[in-house]
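Try this one yourself first.
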């Protein structure tokens, strides 16, 4: 019994790692798995390959590393229509699209079309469709947990999305949430307390590949804003990205530079600003953290993110480096006994592994081996 997958974004880092993992772990081997994966399609932003009998490792490798092109396409709907026309799902043999892209509106349209007009499933690591949609569409997309997996959109798939989704269905109301959701800003705040210059740390983080392609995306707080919006929506709150009160790590007006190297150089003017922040925090026995919060008062919800100082030995004070953490209070997990998850918030292997986990959840007959 195969699970057919069509992966979009396979010329990117996450998509390429996912395909590599699927072959390396023998997901595709029907002798080793009760429910083997069959990769029937791979796509970049402009080309795709497909084979309903399953794409082999050579073709997959050639396409994902860019050495082998595919068929040009001029809109993702073209791929969806081709599948609608040519792919014949049966009970044992269904299709899941994986979104490992950085795309925006066009991916939201695809997700919407797949969920509304077919029986196919979706697994997404891409946050954009979940925040560009209105709340009604978000609910429509995520309604059926066996058709729409989005755990990887927050904390690279650690149990934040799933915990909140289950709590919502269990009537275990969310009372509040605090989280450090940026690996990059976690790394920067940790290093700042080692008396290093902000611009040197940023330069280091950029060259180690920790930041987004343009570090401005991390420093603006938008990435964290998207994640906290997804968590609040998952808990049933009708909120949009625009509702998040964002105190960016560095004021937005200084983040307009498009060239990362030039931007990093310009950040030297913030070295003394952050030295002072560190000194003030340490004077109180505290450390700096970039914290996201969901505060709930009756049926009112407030989303806030910003740089704060917290006691060094507190739940978020003891965090180090790129590790993310979320602390959740519900009716059951109250203030004294919160639900806490701490895990890498990014990373190609972790993300690819958890995309495969979401795929497992969509198997109709999942059987342990
Ligand atoms: N990196 C992590 O640790 C991590 C963790 C959790 C979630 N994520 C999410 O995973 C996604 C992929 O991240 P990445 O680091 O792999 O990005 P990436 O290396 O920039 O790759 C992006 C991929 O998406 C494709 N793409 C971009 N726009 C598209 C569009 N409009 N339609 C179809 N394909 C499109 C690109 O195709 P071309 O090659 O043709 O441009 C490429 O294959 C992102 O949404 C990211 O936020 C990443």
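Now uncover the answer:
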């Amino acid at each position: 019994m195969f699970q057919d997958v069509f992966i979009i974004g396979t010329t990117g880092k996450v998509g390429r790692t996912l395909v590599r993992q699927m072959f390396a772990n023998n997901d595709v081997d029907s002798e080793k798995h009760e429910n083997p994966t069959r990769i029937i399609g791979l796509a970049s932003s402009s080309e795709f390959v497909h084979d309903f009998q399953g794409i082999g490792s050579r073709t997959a490798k050639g396409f994902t590393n860019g050495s082998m092109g595919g068929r040009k396409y001029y809109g993702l709907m073209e791929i969806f229509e081709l599948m609608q026309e040519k792919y014949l799902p049966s009970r044992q043999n269904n299709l899941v699209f994986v979104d490992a892209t950085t795309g925006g509106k066009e991916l939201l349209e695809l997700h919407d079309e797949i969920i509304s007009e077919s029986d196919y499933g979706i697994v997404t690591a891409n946050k954009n469709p979940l925040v560009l949609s209105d709340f009604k569409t978000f609910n429509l997309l995520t309604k059926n947990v066996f058709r729409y997996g989005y755990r990887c959109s927050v904390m690279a798939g650690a149990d934040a999305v799933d915990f909140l989704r289950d709590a919502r269905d269990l009537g275990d109301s969310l009372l509040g949430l605090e989280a450090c959701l940026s690996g990059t800003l976690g790394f920067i705040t940790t290093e700042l307390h080692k008396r290093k210059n902000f611009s040197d740390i940023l330069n280091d983080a950029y060259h180690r590949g920790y930041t987004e392609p343009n570090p401005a995306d991390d420093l603006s707080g938008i990435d964290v804003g998207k994640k906290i919006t997804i968590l609040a929506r998952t808990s049933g709150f009708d909120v949009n990205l625009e509702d998040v009160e964002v105190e960016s790590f560095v004021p937005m007006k200084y983040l307009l530079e498009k060239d990362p190297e030039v931007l990093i150089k310009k950040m030297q003017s913030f070295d003394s600003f952050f030295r002072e922040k560190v000194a003030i925090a340490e004077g109180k026995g505290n450390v700096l953290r970039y914290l996201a919060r969901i505060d709930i008062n009756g049926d009112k919800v407030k989303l806030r993110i910003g740089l704060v100082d917290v006691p060094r030995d507190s739940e978020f004070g003891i965090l180090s480096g790129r590790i993310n953490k979320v602390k959740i209070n519900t009716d059951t997990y109250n203030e004294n006994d919160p639900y806490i998850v701490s895990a890498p918030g990014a990373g190609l292997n972790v993300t690819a592994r958890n995309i495969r986990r979401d795929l497992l959840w969509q198997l109709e007959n999942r059987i342990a081996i």
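Discussion: The first helix runs from residue 13 to 24. The mean pLDDT is 94.
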